[in-house]
Design goal:
The chain has one domain. It contains four helices and ten strands; from the N terminus they run βααβββββαββαββ. The strands form three sheets. A five-stranded mixed β-sheet has the order 1-6-5-3-2. A three-stranded antiparallel β-sheet has the order 4-8-7, with no helix packed on it. Helix 1 packs across helix 2.
């Protein structure tokens, strides 16, 4: 099941400013922006940060807003210590794509976000590293070898972190991304 989220004006400004700062830091250090489209580096970085913010907000984790030389590594870390690489595409029917390289370090999970109608983005789902980074998933979109998965192969984002938890032997109700519907009255923590 996909989840749609529209970034607020402030979040959009954070994406534009953060992308510009990351771009300047990376390019001045010689790190290139590897991409599988003809979009500008600025567009790629703004949408990438938008995808990271949307997933962080949905999973209720703090986004990585640091501005330093970036080449690989986790975009988000969940409370149960899953290391997530968020992949954002401009196309609603886009695939989850990871560049063809043998090692993704400590990344556990890849999440696909689409942003064809930015500032609205859609969290499409996720895959374990071993499900995406394997020889059965190698393809080519005209820019060289990549690992890729169809959206239909992805797991629902709710299955990533939302495990049943109990407080005083009572099950905590389902969590919502904006906490607007959480009812934790009667629970002692």
């Amino acid at each position: 099941m996909s989840h749609e989220y529209t970034l607020t004006e402030l979040e959009q400004k954070i994406c534009v400013t953060g992308a510009k700062m990351r771009h300047n830091s990376n390019r001045s250090s010689g790190v290139t922006n590897v991409k599988v489209s003809r979009r500008t580096d600025r567009d790629v970085e703004v949408l990438g940060l938008a995808g990271e913010l949307a997933v962080a907000k949905y999973l209720n984790v703090y986004p990585d807003l640091t501005i330093f030389i970036r080449k690989g590594g986790a975009d988000l870390i969940t409370p149960n210590n899953k290391k997530i690489d968020v992949k954002t595409t401009f196309y609603d029917n886009g695939k989850l794509i990871a560049f063809y390289k043998p090692d993704y370090g400590d990344i556990d999970t890849f999440v696909l976000v689409t942003a064809e109608h930015y500032p609205t983005v859609v969290i499409r789902g996720w895959a374990k590293k071993e499900d995406l980074i394997n020889n059965d998933k190698i393809g080519n979109l005209g820019y060289g070898k990549v690992f890729m998965m169809e959206q239909s192969e992805l797991k629902d984002i709710d299955l990533l972190c939302f495990k049943s938890k109990f407080v005083n032997d009572k099950k905590i109700p389902k969590r919502y991304p904006d906490n607007s519907k959480d009812d934790l009255s009667g629970y002692r923590i």
